[in-house]
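Sequence and structure are kept together here, with a separate record for every protein. An example record follows, reproduced without changes.
>
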Amino acid sequence: MTVLQPIERGIDFVGHVIKPWRRTIRRKTVNLALHRMAHIHADRLFETSNSYLGLLRQATHSHGDRARVGRIALQRGHCVEHALTKIHRRGSA
């Protein structure tokens, strides 16, 4: 089945909305990531946080979302790089 639609709507692909001039993360994807981070077991938070930061770096306007991920990691006892690109375990940064 072929669906024709205006280019302004973009293409929804694996949690991103891709447009010719930018890529954004679907709001539902970001909210689900934040919810998972807030409730995940502490042993898995480090890997999960870095994974979500990697996903968010692919979007062109994601600084605010990366800050939200960093804030949750800080609240749960991890260190966050100033550029919001990586999470470190407390004491290893």
The radius of gyration is 15 Å. Strands lie at 11-13, 16-19, 22-25, 79-80, 87-88.
